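User: Quick one: structure for sequence A, then sequence B.

Assistant: Sequence A:
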Amino acid sequence: MQTALRNDPNVISIAKMRFRAVKCGKCGAKMFPTSLLKPHLTRHRRREHWLKLELSKLRQTMTHMRDFAQYG
């Protein structure tokens, strides 16, 4: 079986059957059916939001520790 990557990067080929796929712009994952892209992108956004919150907490803790060490 010849890979579909050489012909069309948006096609997934399984057992000589070809399916149209969509590629995620953030991570490059290909998925079929194309309706899975929206939940996939939602997971990216949720993960980014979680990471921002965790970094904010860490930044606040480090600032507090720095202030305590300086003026403590």
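Sequence B:
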Amino acid sequence: MFSDKIVNCPYCETPCEADFVDVGFGLENGMQCGPYFCENCHASQIGPYDSPSILNEKEKETGWYKPGRPVNKVCNTYQGDLVSHTLAKALYRKGLLDRK
């Protein structure tokens, strides 16, 4: 739906996607509702409310957690892995989404 929102991972250059939703009010390209995540090296975008004191210099520079670091604590996860908003909704309805 929002294919123009693909960015390259700052660590390995793999194309990455994030969840975007159509809020139907003036945002022609949707609103981002989840972090960018690299399926290849598992780097992830740092959230707006994450503490800068826990970040190393490369993370501060790129705006992404280095590969292997856990995703943002408020992200939708299943067994610790980031999931899309549509999968998160299905898992939540079954009581399987990780508790926060």
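Residues 3-70 form one domain. The mean pLDDT is 86.

User: Thanks, that's what I needed.
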